[in-house]
Fold this sequence. Notes:
By secondary structure, the protein is of the alpha/beta class. Among the domains are: 2-36; 48-141 and 154-245, Leucine-rich repeat, LRR (right-handed beta-alpha superhelix); 398-524, no CATH class. It is 27% helix and 18% strand. It has helices spanning 2-10, 17-32, 54-63, 82-86, 91-98, 116-126, 157-169, 188-191, 215-225, 262-270, 318-321, 345-356, 374-379, 400-406, 437-445, 481-488, and strands at residues 106-110, 132-137, 175-182, 205-210, 233-235, 252-260, 277-282, 300-301, 307-313, 324-325, 331-337, 362-367, 391-396, 424-429, 465-470, 493-498, 509-510. α14 (400-406) links the parallel β13 and β14. α6 (116-126) runs parallel beside α7 (157-169). The longest helix is centred in the first third of the chain and has 16 residues, at 17-32. 28% of the residues are buried.
Amino acid sequence: MHQILENLASEHEILPTKLWNAGREMSRRFLSAERWILPFFPAHNPSPISRLSRDVLREIFLWSLCADGFRSLNHPGQLALEPLTLSHVSSHWRDIAISTPSLWSTIWVDRPQEAHIPMVELWLERSRQCPLILYLRQTSPPLPGQQQFAPFPDPREYELTDEILLLLGEHLHRWKRITFLFYKGTQRALLNLPEIATAAPLLDHVQLSVKTWDVGDSLMIERIMYSYASVKSIVGHPFMTQECLCWARLTILDAKQLASSINSYLGVLTHCPSLRRAEIRCAQDRLDAPFIPPSRRGRLRLQHLSSLTVYADRVDLRSLLDGLILPKLEGLVLRYSYAPRRSGDPQAVWRLLTCSACVLQRFSLKDVAATIDNDYHISYLQSPQMASLVELYMQVNLTDKVTKFLTLGNAEDGLPRMLPNLQVISLKDIRGDHLDELELYRMVVSRFAGPGPDRNGRYSGALIHAFFSLRVKGHSASPVLPWLVERCRDRLDLRIYLDDCEDRNVKVGWYTSPPIPGGYLAEG
């Protein structure tokens, strides 16, 4: 600082007098007393985040990860480099990041390149002995007619994949969840893994795809991976045989990519008594179905299954729903695509819930059929067993019938009190009509949380989250939506997405409304 002042002194003659005196006074105050230190000086006016303890910062860093093995890793731009980014912010952050091994335990490699080798080595070193979550995907072959748009792979991708697998194989005892998607030839480094039940004691989830491998090598790697005794969760792929899988150990089955008949899935579920969560895709009978159904009679009882997701491709689900008893069922998701009318499915859902005597808390219905038939969609919700629902998700062609059905009634208007316990409502319109925004307003307001029924028998709902993606009358210029947003501002989490409609001049996107002055007057 003194040297700077001396240099400035030599230039005193060329500086305006007032500017020189101002600079000299600032320097004197800067050096004289702590109370004169400039407010932006970081040592004496730290930012709020720098005041957080190491433990709190560590938890924030862990939550910043793009993937923890349960969320999707294939989203564009979600390369798991957050630990490295955090460690380059400051020496304090770097010290915390490096001293948090679990921050480095997710290793994400998409289309192997040379730069991935030192990255994997660094992550393995800094993760120490933490369980590893691994994602390794090679360049997938381009779709027909899209060769020119395909990502350019590294010419040594096959060799680099083997190098990475050799590095990871040395830490087999730490593997926790793996996703390996291979589109090149047989990776020998993977085949060299030991076929010993205790070699990977932590490995509980396997997603494996070896599309272009030799059949014999494909069977061999399935036998190796499924031989580990801790594997209880799998994601199936259509070109894998699943012959070596121990079905009795499974607690999670993700087979939404395996289209097969209902009888085939009922046969598979017979061998999965420990299943807790299942996603299946039912289609018409096929000659190349991945499962062979054994003979069976009566309803199949799955004692532990709490979540069931069914994708229906041009098939009626009645025989599946009538073939199950699920006493612990809490979440049911039905996804219909390219399907004709299924007049018996709502009644089959009723029978399933009645026979299972379960307490259903989450129900999701998606129907892409072009026909608008909300009476059919509402019929799923009219079962007495649906009264326990806490979360409702509907993606159908919406009309005002749905919002009127979901509006809580009272003793005065005589409307039914359907689904009184809902805390989450999500409605997404596919190709439906424009909804009456006043009906939407009434439905949401009728479910405001309250202490309970009043002396007139009015029921108080308990809505916490509401998400709507739809078209409303008046659209972005609706006079009702601002009042709805204002009334919900401090009561619940309300999000409205205005979808595209015939009026090209309206705003499409998330609806926002500034606070209304005196908005509290909207109460009552």
